[in-house]
Amino acid sequence: MKLYVKQKVFSWVDRFYIKDEEGVDRYYVEGQLFSWGKKLRVYDMANQEIAFIQQKVFSFLPKFYVFKSDVQIAEIVKEFTFFKPRYSIVGLNWTIIGDFWSHEYQINENDQPIVRISKHWFTWGDSYELDILNDKDVDLALAVVLAIDAVMSAGRNAASHTSHQ
Fold this sequence. Notes:
single chain; alpha+beta; Porin; 12 strands; globular; disordered C terminus
């Protein structure tokens, strides 16, 4: 299944939609800004929450948790590196490889692809595509990719705040 997320859509208080190949809304995401740490709730179009993403507060490096049905499924952690950003997924047997800044990366399980993420241009704007290979992984892969994007956004915001002081 292919899903499309509009690039630079993350304002933490608005609702945004995840579309399929036909441009049809398949999921929506709502952010909460005024809380301890940033939070995202991911819903299907039947208004069922499929995932909850929450920032770990007071962490040296950006870290987000992914919950499904109030159970923590994964933790997305930005690893300490000097050059290229690296992220790890704790709690799942998934690994991440590729170029994160240009949205050209892949998540694998046992060296088999779960989801490929790539930047694309479509009529509804500059987006990145999630090519999720197995339908059983769609909800969790979407939540993990959104959490990775949240970690990247938190890292960029922290870097811009420290460089302006």
